[in-house]
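Quarterly update, task 2.4: fe (ii) ion-bound model.
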Amino acid sequence: MPATVQSFFHADTCTWSHVVHDPATRAAAIVDPVLDFDPARGRISVESARDILVHVRKHGLRVEWILETHAHADHLTAADWLQRILAETGAPPKIAIGAGILDVQRHFREVFGFGPDFAADGSQFDHLFTDEEHFLLGALDMRVLATPGHTSDGVSYLIGDAVFVGDTLFAPQSGTGRCDFPGADAAMQYRSIQRLYALPDATRVFLCHDYPAVDAQPQAQTTIGAEKAGNAQLNATTTEADYVFLRIRRDAILAAPRLLYPSLQVNICAGKLPAADASGRIFLRLPVFLDG
Ligand SMILES: [Fe+2]
């Protein structure tokens, strides 16, 4: 029986989150959940994550995992909040990410000035996946494919016939994820996508982002066959050299994500917010670089 997937679009950051479950056993995983964050007002809220929770409860799902495809740079993860809420009524799901998170943590520990007390060992997460790790979600086989390139910690999760690809691939007409963050590498991204393209054409591909035109509906999923046939930046016949050239040229004109710094300082901690000060207030850090 195929995996059942429900997708949730976070319009403010154009992010897709997904809940995947085994219909036979109700074992479930949440992929890339999002916190609502208004940086101008300094407000974090959980409306979007609550929608996921409503779905989980409505269908009687037993969430075993909260899976991050990578340390996102454009939204704050709701993993920690969901784990704590779900722990109130059952065993807490494990928050997991690729083992490459250590490189990301080492880099951003310096950027944020967290100092040597910050553990850049992935211990903020419950599990770090290595390439080709397998486990079961109920009766469904889950296979982890390391797919770095957009970031050094990128992983894709193949669960039954559904693969959750993070920012390796966008919808065919939109191409692929950028490769200009620290640790990113367009050639690595090319090779990661070749691994995905080796999956059967009918494999359902669940996206992490979509940026629809005004009045268009966002697209949550496609297939490996559709990506190979028509991805605007990397189809089945694109060479590595052509892709790297195109990707570098494209990345050179992309703006930094609006929530880059808030996102990364929270996401490298599995969604845990900084400790409150003596008056109960929480502060995020914003590094500032002076020109000249
Ligand atoms: Fe990303």
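Highlight for this quarter: Residues 175 and 232 are 5 Å apart (CA to CA).
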